[in-house]
Amino acid sequence: MRDKALARQGVIRPEELVLELQDTFNNVGTWKLSLAAEHPLTTVLRTPGSGIIVTGPTDVLMSGPTVKSELASTPDDPAGTVSFEGVSDSITLSDTLAWPEPSNPDASAQKVSHDIRTGPAETLMQDFVNANCGQYAPAARRKAGLRMGGSLGRGATLTKKARFPVLGDLLSEIALVAGLGFRIVQRGNQLVFETYQVTDRSKTIRLDARNRTLSGQRVAISPPGVTRVLVAGQGDLTNRQFLQVDDATSVAAEADWGRRIEKFVDQRNTNDVTELKQAGTEALADSGFTGIAVQAVPVEDSTMRFGIEWYLGDRVGVVVEGQELASTVTGMLLKANADGFKVGALLGDPAGFTLGAALTRHMQTTDARVSALERTAEATPAGPRVLAPSAITQSSPESAYPLGASVTYLTGDQATAGGWDFGGRYGFLFTQHQDTGDISQRWSRVHANTTTHEEYYRGGNRPSGWGPWRAATMTTLLNPDGARTHQRSQNQLTGGGRIYWDGNGFSWSTRFIAISIGRGSWAPDGYFDISMPPDGTVIPVVGHYGATSVTVTGGRINISGLTRWAALWYKIPYGSGSASNPANFLVTGYTAGAPAPPDDCVLVAAFNSDGWGAPSLKLGTGELIDHWRNLTLQNSWVNFDSNLTATNPDVPTNTWSSAAFRKLPGGQVEVKGLIKGGLCEQERVIATLPAGYRPAGRRIFMAPNNGAAMRLDVDSAGDIFVRLDGGVGTVNNGWLDLGCLRFSADS
Fold first, then answer.
1. Residue 320: pLDDT band by 50, 70, 90 thresholds?
2. What element of type H or E holds 73?
3. Rounded to an integer, what distance in angstroms lies between the CA atom of residue 159 and that of residue 147?
4. Residue 555 and which of 291, 623, 706, 709 are 20 to 30 A apart at CA?
């Protein structure tokens, strides 16, 4: 807060006010402020000439005097609220004319026709301000406390002639061609006329609704205001000098729009060709191009923060309809109250920087110029935007829907009235709209849980319009009441009976059963059976090298054609009876592109062929099973039944088992088989167990031997060999049973 002497009087906290600040590049800003009538600073602000200073995170945003105050009170608020309106301190440039002889305070006695000055653009601007309302102006015209900011002499060297133009308009003409900005702002107890270089930040500041740096945007494109400027110098009629001025941009805009737009500029104060061309160049810089305006609202949590990383007058990158554009930041809107701060920005201007729009008219045009920006300055709420069903029909074009996501609830009558293909039914219409013009919609029916669900989809874009609606096919994968029942089924799987597994073939004799999983619509019987599929059942295989199926033969599921790393699954028939269905089995592998099994499958068994004594089968019940492996006999020892060459534990009746070994789930190694005919000498090796199936130290066993007993030792190298110590039993190679060998394997 400041008084008329420019001294700061106090600070208003955000929760005490409602502030709206509008500012425009190289123009006069406005502000509105509401305070309780009892607030101690209300009296100060109602004093003519007082004003405010608004500070931002890094600098002063705006300062300026009050121009209007109004008290409003009600029975509920008898003290009332005072609303203030004001302008920025740049209003001084609108209030002041540039005199031909600014040092002479008598307007009726001006001794020269024009104030002619030549120099760098920034220097010219400060000189005109200083001479007309600054320190060098006569006391009667001097603005109290106004000082010049620093000048770096930026901009091309220009010549300007002034004869009573509005000072702000004159400065705009100079700043426009020099790429400069200017304003008056209070610093301490002084007003400072500041000039600054407009910065091209289009490579680092990129605003796009699709990357969520904008919460909303609107785009307007307009033709140029002029493409050919006819500048008239001194002289009369046929003796008057004329110069036509155009440039590549204006000529290109003329070709784009198919319009030759001419403008007459009266410069009868000079006959200098350079000055005439400069006047034409200024007119083209004003509106000699296709106008593109973008109203944009930066998101509040963007890393590209307005007022910190980019400012009024800067050039920033904007994505408009898929095109990368550079646009000038021409305006901003700030709203502040107890709920916080919201900032909006205006990028570009369809009319360019209209030099004819004098600053003296700005107070009447500001509201119209920023009205659209004001409407969008509030941050867009999260989530889809809700659209009124009365505003759209099925034939509405994509432009009828806002960018981003939107949702519309349609009653049956509204769906019918809008001509929707799903008329008469209640539902939600979801729309996803891209700034490229592509758009997609999904209609989802709202109904009771006893009604079949329906969904329809359609898509389209700006050039081709809408495609037809297509109905989605609904498949019930899991009953909603039992969406996780398959997990309980897996955890409570039991049974299987007698398991056969020899490394190639797998079978079970009695059903596996998923029981105690609850009883309901997902499980009418309260359990599901998983029985061994009969011969001839073809089980599909996915995710394996070339194999597409396996067939049950000889009562076994034979995986010898696979690489022996696979899993057998069963699809639980939720919602039906408990009977096992052979068509519900599936084998999966692990190769590239192997899909995950459906969620309603349970694991029956997993196979692997790892060595080192790893059990090669894991049942879905959790049990680990190793298959019998052939034991290679040495030193003339052979299987007692010479017809046995496999390790089938289910040997026919009256047939002896062959030599084999396996590891039990607890880590114990088990050896079996009846052998004969080998050498029975001391330390003579019968067979050698592989790594993973050997004891940690030497073990001693007594093995049945042709009606007596023979000592067998097994050492940590895996050797099974004969010992003759102590004359134990009868050493005879007529037959020897290896079934006595059982020990814990070395971990």
1. low
2. strand 60-74
3. 24
4. 623
What percent of the chain is predicted at pLDDT more than 70? 79
Looking at the fold, whether 308 and 280 belong to one and the same domain comes out as: no
- The answer to whether residues 640 and 736 touch, using CB atoms and an 8 Å cutoff, is no
Task: Count Cβ atoms below 10 Å from residue 636 Cβ, excluding itself.
Answer: 13
Shared-domain flag, residues 125 and 37 = yes
Q: What confidence score (pLDDT) does residue 322 get?
A: 60
What global pTM score does this model have?
0.42
Tokens (6 digits) for 612: 């080192």
- Assess if residue 621 is contained within a domain: yes
Q: Domain for residue 396, yes or no? A: no
Segment 214-228 mean pLDDT: 76
Cα gap 20→18, rounded to integer Å: 7
Instruction: Pull the structure tokens for residue 130.
Output: 């200083």
Minimal CA–CA distance to 739: which of 712, 713, 715, 703? 703
Instruction: Outline where DSSP puts E strands in 136-249.
Output: 146-148, 157-162, 180-187, 190-197, 206-207, 214-222, 228-232, 242-245
For the stretch 47-79, pLDDT in tens is 887 888 888 777 888 888 988 888 888 887 787
Identify the CA nearest to 226 among candidates 288, 136, 134: 288
Question: What is the phi/psi pair of residue 642, to 5°?
Answer: -70, -15
Distance in angstroms (rounded) separating the CA atoms of residues 703 and 735: 10
Residues in the chain: 747
Is residue 255 one of the residues assigned to a domain? yes
The owner of tokens 């006569």 is: 138
Residue 478 pLDDT > 60:
no
Which long-range contacts (C-beta less than 8 Å, at least 24 apart) are formed by 270-275?
270/161, 270/233, 270/234, 271/233, 271/234, 271/235, 271/241, 272/159, 272/233, 273/243, 274/159, 275/159, 275/161
541 with 558: CB under 8 angstroms?
A: no
**Measured between alpha carbons, how far apart are the two ends of the chain, in Å?**
83
- Closest by Cα among 485, 487, 533, 483 to 508: 533
386 falls within a domain: no
Structural domain harbouring 307? 198-221+290-380
Q: Using CA atoms, how far apart are residues 612 and 631, in angstroms rounded to an integer?
A: 15
